[in-house]
Amino acid sequence: MSDPTTSPTTSPTASPVLEVSGLQVSVGDHLVAVHDVSFSIGLGESVGLVGESGSGKTLTCRSVLGLLPATGEIDHGRIVLGGTELTGASRRTWNDVRGTRLGAVFQDSASYLNPSLTVGHQLAEQLRVKRGMSRSDAHSRAVELFAEVGLHDPEGVFHQYPHELSGGMQQRVLIAISVSCEPELLIADEATTALDVVIQAEILDLLDRLRETHGLSLLLVTHDLAVVAETCERILVMYGGEIVESGTTEEVLARPRHPYTQALMGVATIGTWERRSLEIIPGQPPTVGEDMPGCRFAPRCRFATDQCTSGPIALTDLGEGRAARCARIDELEGALA
Ligand SMILES: Nc1ncnc2c1ncn2[C@@H]1O[C@H](COP(=O)(O)OP(=O)(O)OP(=O)(O)O)[C@@H](O)[C@H]1O
């Protein structure tokens, strides 16, 4: 198991909020979907976990949230949140952590809201139960939070039901609920994917603003490199259940060191990247549980040679928080930028 204090995917800050080390997750009949994933997130840092559909992003963040599907399990690895060990944690620890120290927002916001209760009631209830606020304090704080996340007429919104709100408004409500207990870490898994480009940019701005005002760390999970380019200080690129590249956003985008990262840059879609042609990375990702002797991206990689499939490929530490898992890393330097 790698030591998070020395892993090249570690945050450069001294006090990590989240440390994940050597995480392996299986689904179904012991099919390994996440392989030896290690990373950490520093206090107040924003980190983007990016990769195509099926690359293992959701299983990784659901492991952190203790919300794996019934058929999924952590085979080994450690997850530590601000000193609290979450691997194998008791139900009581999870109740103390989830919704309070750990917040989460997902793509399908409507399914996380109770359709028969007003959104204000749902937020106020969270404040009453988790923060012990009185009914009137919880009401006032809920209205403040609705205003803070950019909802107009927050008092009016308080009394509305989820179906009366647009998708973007529902997502803002969920964000208000998830930051209401001042979490150390907010996980946003494809939280802007279903929204149109303008609303998507507004929600990304909002997450960034909340990170500063609430002093929280952010793990943004997305298939779209442009989303992390706009929002995150550091990027972790996942492919076939492994981290294949990591580094500061600026460095990774200016000088990608893995051919998969370069391919992802070609299919990114928003913001200043808007005018890029929408390509498709040719070929299919490996199926979950597929045993591959070398690089899992090799069958789709235009640079692949025999050396890429002859044995396991380690993550090469490139210094200053940069790492990439490519057998031809030195030869390809310069060819990928
Ligand atoms: N409950 C499950 N049962 C069986 N296989 C699963 C289950 N959940 C995930 N998988 C498989 O594990 C792999 C990783 O899934 P995961 O959802 O983590 O990927 P992802 O990168 O988040 O993709 P997406 O963006 O589509 O959610 C995929 O091949 C997926 O089909």
From TrEMBL:
GO terms for biological process: peptide transport. GO terms for molecular function: ATP binding; ATP hydrolysis activity. Keywords: ATP-binding, Cell membrane, Membrane, Nucleotide-binding, Transport. GO terms for cellular component: plasma membrane. It is found in: Cell membrane. Residues 18-265 form the ABC transporter domain. It comes from Nocardioides oleivorans. Belongs to the ABC transporter superfamily. This is ABC transporter ATP-binding protein. InterPro entries: AAA+_ATPase, ABC_Ni/Peptide_Import, ABC_transporter-like_ATP-bd, ABC_transporter-like_CS, Oligopep_ABC_C, P-loop_NTPase. SUPFAM superfamilies: P-loop containing nucleoside triphosphate hydrolases. It comes from the Bacteria. It is a peripheral membrane protein.
